[in-house]
Predict the 3D structure of the following.
Amino acid sequence: MVETSTPPCRFNSNRLEIKRWIPTLFSSHKTLFTILWIAAFASVFVWQRDIVHGFPIFRRPAPVSDLPRLRPATFNLTDFGGVGDGVTLNTEAFQRAILAISKLGKKGGGQLNVPAGRWLTAPFNLTSHMTLFLAEDAVILGIDDQKYWPLMPPLPSYGKGRERPGPRYGSLIHGQHLKDVVITGHNGTINGQGQTWWKKYRQKLLNNTRGPLVQIMWSSDIVISNITLRDSPFWTLHPYDCKNVTVRNVTILAPIIEAPNTDGIDPDSCEDMVIEDCYISVGDDGIAIKSGWDQYGIAYGRPSKNILIRNLVVRSMVSAGVSIGSEMSGGVSNVTIENLYVWSSRRAVRIKTSPGRGGYVRQITYRNITFDNVRVGIVIKTDYNEHPDDDFDPKAVPVLEDISYTSIHGEGVRVPVRMQGSEEIPIRNVTFRDMSVGITYKKKHIFQCAYVEGRVIGTVFPAPCENLDLYDEQERLVKRSVSQNISDIDYDF
């Protein structure tokens, strides 16, 4: 017979040892306190493990929820006289609904539901602690008669309207000095009906700068998600001097030609911003990070910083997928652009500036960027000479430094890199690593540089310009460049 139980003598011996050990252990107050503290922490951990919001450092990150923020009060636009027939003007219905929500700020605000339908409106203002929710098949239509669009003072960091001197038109959906605003839905649409504006602009029939589709100014804690923005008269989404802004799962559309200046998203003197999981196809830059124009931006002094752009598909036949500038006089720093796919576009990623801008562009990280049928992949241009007036200081030159490109791939690219510094605006500390781009033109000078200082780590295709130091994969110097200031720029192709 096989014995499977613990021998009595061994069990009794262990029990006697434990009895002798416990009084000795608890005789020390410090030891007792330590044991009690560990027990308490473990009990809390076990308890928290089974509820929704446990200790995040011990749990896998949960998927980000795109559900709208819950408000204590909910309203329907039809409760305020809204008619979604595409003909009735609903401006007063929006204004009455938002006025009701504005009175609930101390209680957490309110949500305005826009049901399915076509809701024609003139421009209106949002309020704090508000959620604007667009149902599936809901379309907010901007009226295309310019007399309904109010004129506003120029942006203080621009000094004049971006296109014309003097005042500028306001945006269709506008807000100033707001906190805690959400614009979301089940992929409803905000449509600026910009065709009339574009035609008048081309015919030079407008005396003032066109207005954006959505513009939020001097505000914080803004979330824009799960909607479509299309056919803006001018820039589509323009956060100005805002903090803590999230743009997620947004589709932005405009014709890729003959829709002038319809940038997708233009963070302007913004701080702590995330743009992710978006599709953008527009008639100008997909994204353009800005911070003021020449002497006005320098005086205003609000940089754009701490911006994360990731997981985007972008198309821009006229300009670039993601740009920095050209209005960057307040400075741009600490920007990460990753997991970006740019297709059938004129340029992929671009930094543009000029003498007179002042400011700086630094600590810019590009990572995992893919080009597909792009004319020029990476661009830095330092002679983008557009100025608000003749009072700019030509000696106010910007600083361009600490810019890195890692994991850059693609095909069908005519010129992979064109980095045009100058004697007065050199480009410093540029890094290329892990780059392989299929080219359509087998010419010699397709990796173009002028007044560029930096390095290439490991293998880069096509062969880099002579301005850059060469390092191996272990970041050991292989060859020091002696030609940082030579120019290899060729605009003929």
User: Anything to note?
Assistant: The two ends are 92 Å apart (CA to CA). Residues 81-399+413-427 form a domain with the Pectate Lyase C-like fold (CATH 2.160.20.10).
